[in-house]
Amino acid sequence: MATVTKRGDTYLITVSCGYNDRGQRVRQYMTWTPEPGMTARQIQKELDRQKTLFEEAVRSGQAVNKAIKFEPFAEQWLAQIKLEGTLKPATIEKYERMRRRVYPVFGHLKLCSITPLQVQKFINDLAEKGIDEKNGVGLSTKSQSLYLTFLSDVFNYAIRCGLRVNNPCRNVQTIKKEQKTRDCYTLDEAQELLEKLETAEPKYKTFFTLAIYTGFRRGELLGLEWKDIDFTTGVVTVNRISQYLNGAICTGTPKTAQSRRCLKLPQEIITLLSWYKAEQNKERLLVGDRWQDTDRLFTKWDGSPMYPTTPAEWFKKFCAANGLRYVNVHSFRHLNASLLILNGVDVKTVSMALGHSQTSTTMNIYAHSFAEQQARASEAVAESLRTIRKNKA
Asked: What's the pTM?
């Protein structure tokens, strides 16, 4: 039942909506102001109509509850998407980590009152120097976009629930940061690494050689199983990833639909994999019944999946011991892409090999490499024309 309280020249209409999970009464409110010149009878008639309309809107879920604050609503949204299973666990974990920056800014604000200006200021602040505790710089454009996506998803859910009529993130812009030069090995450095890997432990020799030749992501390499490799055709298939979530190693699906892909390996890599499989079988026999049959290529001593950070930790020590410049594991993906591009492989093929969902992603990330290849192509045309002119002369 709606109640009405007169406040000066306006009327406060209140509808009780029961109790929340804490036992607190939940109410929704609206104010109505009579038009100038209305008689007392007209005011009462219109007030009764507004009261009835508002009560019906509340009961049907169409009225905006101006009392709901951002944080409890965002928590409800997170619980909902977990229940629906529409997002990958890794994405949900990222969203949960983002709460520590989002809630202090928006958590106490009413959901319906947050404006585009407030969201834009939040994004601007993320780009400020010092926001990233690890290196003292502002967050990258990509990280800003992730926060904006998190906020936008919450507000879209609020619109579906009838608690907002618009999304304040719609026209908010991320702050472009100067793109860092991708630090990866040169061809000579890659060749030197392959030579030094000849004496390395079998699983790491195989891991980093595969990283160079395939350009697979770290999680894709760690998720490989022996059944993914066809030794007859030389084809390897990416079917899963291995990742660390909520304190445990778990298996997930590839990043995008296009990340599920096949790649033809050169014969020398198939030979390497055959050798490594034999070496792993020797280890398996030594461990005996303590071996866990996961079928994974890259494992701990007992056959269980390897921690995602283990290859990088080993590689740092390996580089220091062998006088090599250290680069992170992901840089081998960039090296593979650069080698493909500089050898004239077209953008669509490169995109498919890397498992990008769109060729535009490949073009954006490797614009410099494509520009360098285009310059080489132009120089080749010029050289051909020079040769023709020289022959005619």
From this structure: 0.65
